[in-house]
Design brief:
Blueprint (H helix, E strand, L loop, with lengths): L9 H15 L8 H14 L5 H9 L4 H11 L10 H21 L4 E6 L6 H13 L7 E8 L2 H9 L1 E2 L9 H7 E4 L2 E4 L1 H4 L2 E5 L5 H5 L4 E6 L8 H13 L1 E9 L5 H4 L4 E4 L4 E4 L1
Helix pairs in contact: 1-3, 2-4
The protein binds S-adenosylmethionine.
Length: 279
């Protein structure tokens, strides 16, 4: 019988840490072991495992995807909010989007494909959908799809619901809050017009097979997820995302993340409010 909150040695945490890093990229340095330990302790209890070694065996059995899902859901950091990193979004909507659309119009290509590749509770893809509604001239002419993916199944359910507290919408300009959200008893529900542009799906950024099937994205937003990964996983993800983009397409990372350090495949382009990477 597992004694609740019994200390787990580093020696027992390391194989679990390495297994998770290999499978999903998220890497815990030793100084973050307290966080990992808490989650392992909870899963040991929930699965009635005897100890960390037994739990690791349970987790790493290839026919146990359910425990993997539970564990990953417990490990992920889902911090996000609408209109996160405004200068970058302004750059996207005011400078980069018109540039790409102009090129597409020349080719009479009216398909616009955007991927929010670690979308958490949906704040990011819905923000992008709002920006498109605000900034696209001849909106009706465009065939728009925003794919929003995350590894965490629980957070995807919340994203699909599309209901947010005041903290999530604190940076939404008041006029847009009024236009694109219905107030529902102290909370805000995204309107159907915005919701219909976004489809949610579970994708692990390190799942080679599934990543290979993703194609033809004009824009990819992969923000504030690579910071949790080790270098090897970052490289793999950036290369897969590169393959998933159309030539001339742009990728957007988080504030403290830089493709340049990871891969030389993208071209760095300077815009007035942000730096961006182009294929
Ligand atoms: C901090 S949130 C970032 C949300 C949003 N992109 C933003 O910038 O506000 C990081 C998200 O990455 C997801 N994530 C972590 N590892 C992943 C993986 N291997 N594949 C896909 N998503 C992953 C987490 O579940 C979490 O929802």
């Amino acid at each position: 019988m597992w004694e609740a909150e019994a200390k787990i040695s580093d020696e027992d945490l390391i194989p679990i840490r390495d297994f998770i890093a290999y499978k999903v990229g998220v890497f815990f340095e030793e100084k973050k072991f307290y966080f990992l330990e808490k989650r392992v302790q909870r899963r040991i209890q929930a699965t009635n495992s005897k100890n960390a070694k037994e739990y690791y065996r349970l987790l790493s059995l290839s026919d146990n995807p359910d425990e993997m899902t539970e564990f990953i859901n417990a490990l992920t950091t889902n911090e996000t909010y609408f209109f996160r990193n405004q200068p970058q979004l302004e750059s996207f909507a005011e400078e980069i989007l018109p540039l790409v659309l102009e090129e597409k119009e020349k080719k009479k290509d009216y398909r616009l494909r955007i991927w929010s590749a670690a979308c958490s509770s949906g704040d990011e893809p819905y923000t992008l959908a709002i920006l498109l509604q605000e900034h696209l001239k001849n909106y009706a002419k465009w065939d728009i799809q925003i794919l929003a993916t995350d590894i965490d199944t629980e957070i995807l359910d919340r994203a699909d619901l599309g209901v947010y507290d005041t903290r999530a919408v604190k940076d939404v300009p008041p006029a847009m809050l009024k236009k694109y959200f219905h107030p529902v008893s102290n909370r805000y529900q995204i309107v159907a017009e915005v919701k219909k542009l976004v489809s949610f799906r579970q994708i692990n950024l390190l799942d080679r097979m599934v990543m290979r099937q993703q194609r033809d994205f004009d824009f990819i937003f992969c923000r504030n997820v690579l910071i949790y990964f080790n270098d090897d996983a970052r490289k793999k993800v950036v290369n897969s995302l590169y393959d998933a983009m159309t030539p001339g397409g742009f990728i957007f990372l988080g504030h403290s993340e830089s493709v340049g350090k990871i891969s030389a495949v993208f071209k760095l382009v300077k815009f007035s409010k942000s730096l961006s990477y182009q294929k």
